[in-house]
Amino acid sequence: MTAETRDLSGTVVAITGATSGIGRATARELVQQGAKVALTGRRADRLADLQQELGADNAVVVAGDVQDPAVSQRLVAQALESFGRLDSLVASAGVGAYGGILDGTDDELASMMRTNVDGTIWAIRAAVPPMLSAGGGDIVIIASVAGLRGGGNEAVYAASKFAQVGLAGAIDRELRTSGVRVTALCPAAVSTEFAIGRGRTEGDAWLDDVLQPEDLAAAVTVVLRQPRRLRTTQWSMWAMTEGN
Ligand SMILES: NC(=O)c1ccc[n+]([C@@H]2O[C@H](COP(=O)([O-])OP(=O)(O)OC[C@H]3O[C@@H](n4cnc5c(N)ncnc54)[C@H](OP(=O)(O)O)[C@@H]3O)[C@@H](O)[C@H]2O)c1
Fold first, then answer.
1. What predicted TM-score, i.e. pTM, was given to this entire model?
2. What CATH number is given for 12-237 in this structure?
């Protein structure tokens, strides 16, 4: 049997956390593959730059904070209005900070949970109705290996990522028979703006040797291109330079 893959041209993908890192690389890769994208993040200037780079025919943008459910609702509404359908959601918006359980303020930790957990829930709740109407879709959550085994010095971040992995497993069980596939993509360290100033420093030499955002964009593409008779529920990914 020859392994067939799906053509992504003309499909429509909503991406949260598209202003940098994994989300931005995924937007670029998917447009290369012929997809249309609806992008969000708080930095409106970054979104405008990316839309210009990708072309207004290929990308629409909605600026806002993923902690607000209305932002994801607007993102999906914009995708439907501009492109007429929504095939996939890539939930990449997230923040991280390294530190012990007693470090950081209550507000910082609560905001991390709201961004990583609530923000993912709001994006999924906005994206699922059009997927159900269309008979299926794909949800890819950019979780983390921290959501598979809590690492030291990242307790609350790990808690937020365990929540994402649990959410992915539960939604898979709930929506599989409706044609919605759900993947928790769990990378180890990726060289992005993630946690810069909160445990990572810009220009850290070790960041050159870990996963690159383009590696994750390629993984998302593999997941979306898989034939609809199968699904990838969980994918952990490590650079060869890192142990597990
Ligand atoms: N880099 C790593 O080592 C690593 C490893 C494993 C998993 N991950 C996960 O990968 C995902 C993407 O991170 P990244 O590495 O690509 O880091 P990044 O370059 O810092 O990107 C994070 C994205 O999330 C958005 N974001 C953050 N807070 C937001 C908020 N409140 N509302 C809306 N958007 C928000 C940011 O946009 P704005 O600032 O413009 O809002 C940005 O687009 C995260 O969920 C992270 O936990 C990263």
1. 0.98
2. 3.40.50.720
